[in-house]
Every structure is written in C-alpha cells, then in structure tokens.
Amino acid sequence: MNDLSSAPAPEEERPARQRKPDWIRVKAPTSKGFQETRKLMRDLNLNTVCEEAACPNIGECWEKKHATVMILGDVCTRACAFCNVKTGMPRMVDPMEPENTAIAAAKMGLEHIVITSVDRDDLPDGGANQFVKVIKALRRETPDTTIEILTPDFRGKMRAAVEAICEAGPDVYNHNLETVPRLYPTIRPGARYYASLRLLEEVKSHNPLIFTKSGIMLGLGEQRLEVHQVMDDMRSADVDFITMGQYLQPTPKHAKVEDFVTPKAFDAFGSIARAKGFLQVAATPLTRSSYHAGDDFAEMRAAREARLEKQRAKEGKGA
User: Could you tell me where the Basic and acidic residues compositional bias lies (predicted)?
Assistant: First the structure.
C-alpha cells in the first residue's frame, strides 16, 4: 500500500495495466447453470450488477443461480472512477421491474436475494420508491426469501429515502463507502464520505433490527491506517458487516490498480475487523458486496443471536 506522502505519477508516466496475480484469476463462465441464469434475466428484462460491473465471481454465482438484480435501469447518473456501469441520462423506470424481480427470485428458488441499483439523481426520490416496490413484491411472491438491498447515497434526498425503505422492511441494508475519505475526490467524486456514514446511521435510527453492511475496495492507494480508521468509522455508525475486496480496473479509462493486496494482508485486515466488533467480516481478494451474501447473512444472524444470548446471561447473573 502506498505511503500517504507518495504522489501519483503524471498520466503519461504511468505504467501499463498490471498483470493480475494468480490469486485473483478466475475461470470464464461456461456452465449450464450460468446460461440458464442469463436467459432468465434476459427473458424478464432484468439488469444485473454481476454483468454491468464485470464481477469476477459471475461464473461461480450464476452457476448456483445466484444473481444480484440491478434495478432502475443500467445507466447511472454518476461517473465514479472505479465503476464499469454506463454513465448518462437514464431511461424511464420500468414499472414491471418489481414484479419481474419477484418472479426471478421465485423461479431461482432464492433463500436470499440482493437488490442494488444505479444512481438516479434525476428522480425526485432518487429511486427510493422503486426499492420499496421491489421489497413489497418479493414479500408477496416469495415471503420466505430474505432481502438484502445495496442502495446509492440518495444525495440530497437521503432522510426521506431511508425512512421509506426501512418502513418496507429489508433484512439487510447495504451502502458501500467504497474507499478511504482521502481518495473520494478522485475515486468517488460525486459522493461524500461522511454523508454515506450518516446514511448508515440513519438506517439504525429508524430500525435497529435491520442489519447494516458496508464495504471498501483495496488496492487504490489507501494506507493501512486509513483502512483501520474506516473500520472505526463504520463501527461508530453501528455497521454490522464489513466487506473488503481487491479493486480491479475495468478498462484503461478507469482508476488504475495501485497495489494487488495479498491474501495474507486481507486475512490481517479481517482479523482486525473482527476484533473491532463487526458481527460479520468478508475480506478476500475476490470479495464483493453480494458474494456469498446468503451464507454470510445466516452467519451474521446467528452471531447477533449469540451476542444477545451472552448479554442476557450476563444480565441474569448480575440480577
């Protein structure tokens, strides 16, 4: 990881894209399950962040018929330096999207589903109402499916958006900080670090029972102690689950990879995060927000129950 004092090289002096180390390589998706999942998404006119963000885990997840649905279209109103999703003026919101998402969840037999979206700064509510409609459709069609949402920051509309979504009752509310605050001007220029933290705090203030989750990418030039500070900030906002994964440059136009962080370093970050009190931690080079989300949710729910049981036992002894 780079030292804080090291300045980035001028664009013309920067080396070509780094070759990926062995631990970050994955096989191209070819399985029958992958093809079936892709066909289902196309038939229902649904977008997935798996495709739009060029996720390296798409082959593994889609083979198991796990897909992260990306609502509100496939065009984002922001232009983050790390993201592969198209930028521009989005189309009208698809009124069939909530119902089609619920149909997809039912056909895939999902026990846990992750719903995310592009940023929609063009909409009066930032797209919050579409999240509400999707959650309600899922509750009607697949009532046993647990629901995890990954929302944008709803810039300028955050409080009303979070309140409406929390009222709909997702099981997990995820909003990613993405990187350390020092790198926001270049990596996430359309967002504000402390506004994202406030969003996560707002979720807990509306409903403390909703699990909160956030993630960051490593390899963008962050310093180790900066990552530790992000962990502390998340815990101050009562975030339950932290994800940490390796940033991969989608195209030469995007922010370059400054470091390929080793699996050993990820293990060390994971150990520190657990010591700081997160209920669940996912820290590997290939970790992404929705990777193994269902299994992680089950473990997180069990961890909360174990913690509450321990507190009850301690209070009982003190009575």
Answer: 11-22
Q: Could you please report the per-residue DSSP string of 130-146?
A: HHHHHHHHHHHH-TTSE
Task: Return the closest-CA partner of residue 249 out of 280, 219, 294.
Answer: 219
Domain that holds residue 123: 32-317
What is the spatial distance between Cα 10 and Cα 232, in angstroms, rounded to a whole number? 33
Report which secondary-structure segment, H or E, holds 69. Answer: strand 69-71
Is there a domain that residue 104 lies in?
Answer: yes
Question: Annotated binding site: which residue ranges?
Answer: 50, 55, 61, 76, 80, 83, 290
Predicted pLDDT at 17: 54
Kindly report the average pLDDT of the chain as a whole number: 87
- Does residue 17 form part of some domain? no
The count of structural domains within the chain is 1
22 domain-assigned: no
Burial environment of residue 88 by CB neighbours within 10 A (0 to 12, 13 to 18, 19 or more): exposed
- Residues at the binding site for [4Fe-4S] cluster are 50, 55, 61, 76, 80, 83, 290
Token match 């895939």: residue? 108
Residue 274: CATH number of its domain: 3.20.20.70
- The answer on pLDDT for 34 being more than 70 is no
Report if residue 246 sits inside a domain: yes
- Reported confidence tier of residue 46, pLDDT bands at 50, 70, 90: confident
Q: Report the predicted TM-score, pTM, of the whole model to 2 decimal places.
A: 0.86
